[in-house]
Automatic annotation (TrEMBL):
Domain AB hydrolase-1: 23-130
Keywords from the UniProt entry: Hydrolase
Gene Ontology molecular-function annotations: hydrolase activity
Annotated signal peptide: none
Protein name (database record): Epoxide hydrolase-like
Length: 158
């Protein structure tokens, strides 16, 4: 397994990779890191694929910008597009889990020209409600104790 740091769109991104051939980009969930994919990376590299798994923006050894606005899906996907540009890859097979699946859906919507195929686990495509924000939908469905709702609380108010 090779570990590198790649600067893309102003972010230093920690990236693990192994193998050669067609590229598979793995996107981890929350609160995971690249190593959630280590077994799949080894298996696919043994079959002739190039397996790539970054620590996403704000996770692990990748940079964590302090501004919440820096974590929009446009920013996160932009860094990933920059990553595959830096690696000289035109198209990828994209694999996402949990938070990584959300980012993978957005990647496909924003840059379908860069994706050969998508495999997502644990998160279905989140269709948008025309008048309600996603956090309001989560609160209505799961209540205030749902982890995504809990993370909306400013921790400094306690």
């Amino acid at each position: 397994m090779e570990h590198t740091t790649i600067n893309t769109n102003g972010i230093n991104l920690h990236v693990a990779s192994i193998g050669t051939g067609l590229a598979v980009l793995f996107l981890h969930g929350f609160p995971e890191l690249w190593n959630s994919w280590r077994h799949q990376m080894l298996a696919l590299s043994s079959l002739g694929y190039r397996a790539i798994a970054p620590d996403l923006r704000g996770f692990g050894d990748s940079d964590a910008p302090p501004s919440p606005e820096s974590y929009s899906t446009l920013h996160v996907v932009g860094v990933l597009v920059g990553l595959i540009d830096q690696l000289g890859i035109d198209q990828i097979f994209l694999v996402g889990h949990d938070w990584g699946a959300v980012i993978a859906w957005c990647f496909c919507l924003f840059r379908p020209d860069r994706v050969k195929a998508l495999v997502n686990m644990s998160v279905s495509f989140p269709s948008r409600h025309p008048t309600r924000k996603p956090i309001e939908t989560f609160r209505a469905m799961f209540g205030e104790d749902y982890y995504i709702c809990r993370f909306q609380v400013n921790l400094f108010t306690f």
